[in-house]
Amino acid sequence: MIKTKVLVIGGGATGTGVARDLALRGIPCVLVEKGDIDSGASGRNHGLLHSGARYVYSDPVSAAECKEEGTILKRIAPHIIEDTGGIYAAVKGDDPTFIEDFQEMCDKCGISAERLTVEEALALEPNLSKDTIAAYKVEDASIDPFRLSIENMSDAKNNGAKFLTGYELKSFKIENKKIVSATVQTKGGKTEDIEPEIVINATGSWAVMITRMAGIDIDMVFSKGSLIVTQTRLSNMVLNRLRIPDDSDIIVPGGTVSIIGTTSERIDSPDEAYPRVEEVDKIVDEAAKLIPVLKKSRLIRVYSGVRPLIKTENAGSDRMIGRSFSVVDHEGTVGNFITITGGKLTTFRLMAEKAVDLACKKLGINKKCTTMDMPLPDSPTAKFIKPGYSAKQWLLNNDVNDPLLCECEMVSKSVVDSLIETLEDHAGDSYLVAMGLRSRATKGPCQGMFCSLRILSYMYDKGVFKGDEGLSDLKLLLNERWKGLHPLLWDQAMVQAELMEALHCGFLGTELE
How many domains does the chain have? Predict the structure, then answer.
């Protein structure tokens, strides 16, 4: 039995942010996550740190929140942000009224927007369409969501928090309108009972499933968005289409690649979020109007995430549903239960602050939030997530006794050794998937075709795997990679898929059963 002040459910940006906030206030907490860090929407987005300009038309409240929180994050966590700046550009056929009103809408929300000439915009971004007719410069940036959550987790752990990844919530025990215990379980069948004084549900789109375990329904909309990853970086800055928010509007540079999307499709469950060929075609066709080079670029992956939207009346399309967040106090039904959902990656810190403020009120604790001013430490745990870091380290060391296991991202044996140590208490589905999350291995152009075998063999040598455990782990990794490859099966991607099948299925018999 584990006893704690606060049980946090969900290991995304908000959940890990809640855990860090609690730990910095000296409040003991345990975080449980059924998968791994950022296995939900926090790991399936653009990695865009919003200036707020995207929402000046549809949701001024969220626009102002993004502006303020983006400024805070640039101050407290510059090491996980590439402050690229952004450009909003319109092309021939876009609404001239929206173009002219954009500056005033930004001004009303306190968001900086500088009008550029077309020549100035093309000088900053040569790949912009020659059909560009108007442009504004804004304060968008790129943020690494995986590194963000791992840094949150690391700092929380250093301040006393406990993390259980790979543990799924199975049930609550409720007595006198109060959660007295929660049972969590790994896929291997290991269970733990946790006795909390307060429970914070920070599971994003899965929040409604958690509340139902306590006999509570919240009204949510599941809006799936798909994004594509290019092999090379197509822009220096974040590019946005200068129009009312719609599909395929945003191109975000992330390290050596670009992430482009997104779509918006209503689904019945967040567990049904898979990309489709039609979405890929739509993204490429629409985004190429802003950046034509996309039509000739190699795509290496597509993935989907689910926006946790709070249902509102008369919102029209899902694009028009507000992007602000909700802190729900379930006091009338279950007195020690809080749900935090909605919002954006950019506003995770504010969301965590408000949820913890409410938890403190319920606990009778008078301790203020410090995350607005407390720098997020640059921890060794997340160092290999930084694009190019492994390559630089390998080239600097040039150690012939430290050969590369992943040539796309230049992840060497010493990197894998370092990461094996951090995964000692990992109870998630796959060590290989966890390794990729923490080092970018398997995420390069080959999508794990070669490096997965090298890393797997090395982990057998290290004693991490025994018997057929490693092959089962490899199947889980390849299944995840396949979800992002099959909507792209044409031209080079088809050739790559055939080679991967020959290597993995022909030699190792890893075809799915």
Answer: 2
Domain stop point among 311, 331, 365? 311
Domain for residue 358, yes or no? no
Distance CA 328, CA 308 (A): 14
203 belongs to a structural domain: no
pTM for the structure as a whole: 0.92
Answer yes or no: are the C-beta atoms of 377 and 157 closer than 8 Å: no
Range of the domain at 405: 388-508
The backbone torsions φ and ψ at residue 208, rounded to the nearest 5 degrees and listed phi first, read -65, -35
Domain boundary (311, 329, 352) is at 311
Kindly give, in sequence order, each residue whose CB lies less than 8 Å from that of residue 381, ignoring residues fewer than 6 positions away: 150, 151, 153, 154, 422, 438
Q: Read off the pLDDT of residues 16-66 as tens digits, 9 standing for 90 and up.
A: 999 999 999 999 999 999 999 998 889 999 999 999 999 999 899 999 999
Q: Looking up tokens 């584990």, which residue turns up?
A: 2
Give bridge partners of residue 134 from the DSSP assignment. 90
Name the nearest CA neighbour of 369 among 359, 382, 379. 359
CA–CA distances in Å: residue 116 to residues 8, 58, 94, 383: 46, 23, 17, 37
Q: Hey, what are 52's tokens?
A: 């707020």
Whether 284 maps to a domain, the answer reads yes
> Both tokens of residue 497?
């898929």
Distance from C-alpha of 283 to C-alpha of 488, rounded to nearest angstrom: 12
Buried b (16+ CB within 10 A) or exposed e, 51-82: bbbbbbbbbbebbbbbbbbbeebeeebeebbb
3-state helix, strand, coil in the chain (%, to 5): 40, 25, 35
**Phi and psi at residue 465, in whole multiples of 5°?**
-110, 150
Within a domain: 6: no
Q: What is the C-alpha separation between 34 and 39, in angstroms, rounded?
A: 9
Phi, psi of 5 (to 5 degrees): -70, -50
The per-residue pLDDT for range 478-509, each reduced to its tens digit, is 888 888 888 988 887 888 888 888 888 877 77
Report the SS3 class of residue 5: strand
